[in-house]
Amino acid sequence: MPTMLCLHGFTPEQEDKVREAAPGWDIIFGRPKELEDSVFREAEVICGWSPAIERECLGEGGKLKWLQAWSAGVDKLPLEKLEHAGVLLTTASGVHPVPMAETALSMMLAFSRGLHLSIRSQSRGKWELREPYGELRDGTLAVIGAGEIGTEIGRLGQALGMRTIGVRRSDKAAPHMDETLPMERLHEALAQADYVVNVLPLTPETERVYGQKEFAVMKRTSVLINMGRGVAVDTEALVEALRSGAIGGAGLDVTDPEPLPEGHPLWTMEQVIVTPHMGGSSERYKERVTELFVHNLKNYLDTGRPARNIVDYERGY
Predict the structure, then answer these.
(1) Could you tell me if 259 and 237 lie in one domain?
(2) What residues act catalytically?
């Protein structure tokens, strides 16, 4: 009887859905610290991640064939070892668009209407107008990384009357984008945008995408919102751009380093909003991962391969 591990505390109803999809399997639900190492060594399929997987499953004698990650990004996993072991790796891409897009939109609205400044005034017991107050309508939104999350951000932007520009690896048209540009034309998008939202995955090509040159071509009133990975932004260059007025503000759900150390200037800059890498979090997260995993599981049992989100090890996503 083949063994499957599910590591992230599924509800009883979610456990039943997994069992119904895989009759005849020995399915073990539990937190990693609750499980013996031998359980990992026997697993053919694992949903979730634990350091024990690298230690017990990827060496000689490991039985692991498919790993369903709990996150959309897999840059922190031992990709070379997984590839060498012949493990199929799938991400949780598609689970995050709604909360990520709503977080990006909330930051845009906060900057446009000065909500972040009013909240700071409130904390001091002050009634302060911080004019001028802007509007998102008729503004330009550039979404850098026009995948599933990016297109949902574009959809919300268009719903509010914004012009949307999507930037991706190719210039193939992206849904909910009025214009789509390849990464080679990033500066064109940055120069037009009132709001720049980064949702690029982390690869060697996307580290430090935003530096001094990029901030120099942006509007002095533009706002950078980073929802992807902290290392996409050169933090020192960002601080200097904010201090000099080269750009108008920054909304940071991710940072480099993460978390920011105590006393870092980004904590106290009025034109900066920092959130604790919560953009993809949602009370419905586990529900959506379960739906994705069960869908992939049924296809794996039918064909030997999961249906969605198989990682290309060469690209890293």
Answers:
(1) yes
(2) 229, 258, 277
